[in-house]
Amino acid sequence: MDSTDEFDQEVQPEKESPSYWTSVGIASLLFGIIAFVISIITVYATINAEPTGSFFSPTQLIGVLGCLVGAFGGMVATWHYAKEYDVVIKLGKGALIGFLTGVGITVISTLLNQVWLLFDPDMTQKMIESTVANFEAMDMPDEQKQQMIDATVESMRGQNNIGTQLLWGIPMYGILNLLTGMIGAKVFGKEESEFG
Amino acid sequence: MIYSTITRNRVLYFGVALLSLLLVMVGSGGGLFGYEGFWIGDWQHKMFRTLCHQDPSRSFWINGKPMAVCARCYGIYAGFSLFWLSIPLLGKINSDFFRYTKKMLLVAILLNIVDVVGNLLGFWQNSSISRSILGAIIGSTAVLTLAREFLKSKTN
């Protein structure tokens, strides 16, 4: 069996490597707050906007960009880890750092969102009313419009449930940050000698 | 063949292959799974809600339902997945090629930013096809950046 490379990697004892939790914590906190703040800005911009009758608005784009930024937390965590300790980061470790950062981002933004709801418990209802008003302004058959409103209202009510936010957020942010964590490990980690 | 070509980080390779295929399948939206209700309510759209604008006019459609992600995002996931599965074939490429992959990824990201801004400012009108192709260039160059980590060294 020609797999000496693999066995070389697996059998050699791991060198003592510094903990990555600080990097995971910093990136999670930073990107969790960014994702939360931008989502809150988007929600209030939507609440205060005039109905346009369009599915898509520039405000929505800002919100998505903010959340999309959260997918790069893994890359930033590996960058921080590499910069702090000047170490070789194996791809698997980059993936793990990225995944944990994705989980952290989801937990922090979800918790902040729940805390915000204590200050403005009507936020979801106001958002639903604004979205429905926008749909009402759309030029489409009434039956289809009603179906769309029902589906959206149900979906938005579920969105502020802490369980739903974690259920959807952890796998998505986890996977995407796992991928960006790997890329971060490759881009920012110290280069191994040719093929380690 | 794949198993013997991937000589390093095998668990990671197959794990990411599975996850990337999962992203492509979920990103395809409820139409792929025969969802009957209004598309906003399908679980695929809920999963990607915070990550993509999901504008139906900027998405591909399957069975009368828009995908859960826009054409550009779908291109990124599909390009990533396709190239990830092709990593075993990349072992035949000259290793000098991999020196430039980080720059290629950066150029791919810049190309997409230019396309978004140009379209937004009205310099040109992009299409779902062009957006998905540009997205696929990001996905594929991201894989090229990582590919060498899974292949056997030519120097050994």
- Mean pLDDT of chain B equals 89
How many strand elements of chain A?
0
Placed side by side, the strands forming the largest sheet of chain B appear as 1-2
Given as residue ranges, the uncertain stretches of chain A (5+ residues, pLDDT < 50) are 1-13
Q: Give the helices and strands of chain B as they follow along the chain.
A: HHHEEHHHH
The largest β sheet of chain A comes out as:
none
Helix tally of chain B equals: 7
**Binned strand content of chain B:** under 5%
Please state the overall shape of chain A, judged from the principal axes of the Cα atoms.
Answer: elongated
Spans of at least 5 consecutive residues with low confidence of chain B:
none
Main β-sheet description of chain B: 2 strands, antiparallel
Binned strand content of chain A: under 5%
Provide keyphrases for this structure.
heterodimer; A: about 200 residues; about 75% helix; B: mainly alpha; two-stranded antiparallel sheet
List the helices and strands and how they pair.
The complex is a heterodimer of chains A (196) and B (156).
Chain A: H1 4-11, H2 21-48, H3 58-69, H4 73-85, H5 91-119, H6 123-136, H7 142-159, H8 162-188
Helix pairs in contact in A: 2-3, 2-4, 2-5, 2-6, 4-5, 4-8, 5-8, 6-7
Chain B: H1 2-5, H2 10-27, H3 43-48, E1 61-62, E2 65-66, H4 71-85, H5 87-90, H6 101-120, H7 128-147
Antiparallel strand pairs in B: 1-2
Helix pairs in contact in B: 2-4, 4-7, 6-7
